[in-house]
Design goal:
Layout lengths: L9 E4 L3 H12 L5 E4 L3 H20 L5 H10 E4 L10 E4 L5 H14 L5 E4 L6 H5 L8 E6 L8 E6 L5 H13 L3 E5 L5 H19 L5 H12 L5 H8 L1 H15 L8 H8 L15
Parallel strand pairs: 1-2, 1-4, 2-3, 4-5, 5-6, 7-8
Antiparallel strand pairs: 6-7
Helix pairs in contact: 1-2, 2-3, 7-9, 7-10, 10-11
This protein binds acetoacetyl-coenzyme A.
Length: about 290
């Protein structure tokens, strides 16, 4: 993409598994310099460790040389404040799945970044139009929904809010493609295509467990071996994070009023107990 519309520098807000996965993919596949901000130094530390281990694995497997790995690493820098993202042409927000958190980040970014920049959110269920309502130029805001693990999953879901401009949409799409992803487009409906379909499925599996229909192992095995899913639904819910699953389901349920999205009682209890999945060391399984 030529001239002032080219994406030359990428900003990432949030150094969790999604934010760091996007940072690594942009720095390696798209060969772009990436600046990462997170208010938690612990998150940053964990995120950098993840990047280092994934690059070391690629070197070990002979996919990239040590020099290439160093180049990728050197393209990722950590910044200490949000306003250090001011020269980024595109910022991807990958913070907590919470409307108020996202609105406050976007409101700040819209004042910090140039009017020509693209402000993308990696939200899995919150309305792009709602997030854009917190900024002076809602046409800059777009949904770019990556999947976990970002370096491995081939898809990015692209979502236009009601006010997203065609230029913002096409620049966000070009960025995702430069990252080596296939792009599908979804309307700004709760959960978009991906989670409107995935969440009732995961919830149904949790309700099967709750009702004692089968053991967790057999529920997962049924889907893995019977339907060739790479992970069973309970394993996948643990992988996504049960807190994230609950937040998405609550948004879907609240926004549609449809009972098919009502989170199961067991899911809520698991989150209450702090057993939120792989990242906590315990969810439906122990890690
Ligand atoms: N970060 C980066 N790479 C990772 C990773 C991680 N957290 N976890 C695994 N990988 C990589 C491995 O390093 C390995 O890469 P190489 O082939 O380059 O060595 C590759 O994934 C395969 O890993 P493994 O061989 O260890 O294990 P596997 O074959 O069982 O695959 C998996 C692991 C790719 C995660 C696979 O189980 C899978 O595809 N699971 C389903 C994942 C899925 O559905 N994700 C979407 C969740 S929904 C979402 O993210 C969006 C939302 O809104 C909720």
């Amino acid at each position: 993409m030529a001239g002032h519309l080219a994406i030359r520098t990428v900003g990432i807000v949030g150094a969790g598994q999604m934010g760091m996965g996007i940072a690594l993919t942009a720095a390696s596949r798209a060969a772009l310099p990436v600046k990462v901000f997170d208010k938690s130094s612990q998150q940053i530390e964990g995120g950098l460790k993840l990047v280092a281990s994934l690059l070391a694995k690629d070197v070990h497997k002979g996919r990239i040389s040590t020099d290439e790995s160093k180049d990728v690493h050197s393209r990722i820098s950590v910044v200490s404040a949000l306003d250090k993202l001011k020269d980024c042409d595109l910022v991807v927000e990958a913070a907590a799945e919470n409307l108020l958190v996202k609105q406050s980040i976007f409101s700040a970014l819209s004042q910090i970044c140039a009017p020509s920049s693209v402000l993308a959110t990696n939200t899995s269920s919150i309305s792009i139009t709602k997030i854009a309502a917190s900024v002076a130029r809602p046409e800059m805001v777009v949904g770019l929904h990556f999947f976990n693990p970002v370096p491995v999953m081939k898809l990015v879901e692209l979502i236009a809010g009601l006010q997203t401009s065609p230029s913002t949409l096409s620049r966000a799409q070009s960025f995702a493609e430069a990252c080596g992803k296939e792009v599908t487009q979804s309307a700004d409906v709760p959960g978009f295509v991906s989670n409107a379909l995935l969440m009732p499925f995961l919830n149904e599996a949790i309700m099967c467990l709750e009702k004692g229909v089968a053991t967790k192992e057999d529920i997962d095995k049924t889907l893995r071996l019977g339907m060739a899913h790479p992970m069973g639904p309970l394993q996948l819910a643990d992988f996504i994070g049960l807190d994230t699953c609950l937040a998405i389901q609550q948004t879907l349920h609240r926004e549609t009023g449809d009972d098919k999205y009502r989170p199961s009682v067991l899911l809520g209890r698991m989150v209450d107990a702090g057993w939120v999945g792989r990242k906590a060391g315990k969810g439906f399984y122990e890690y």
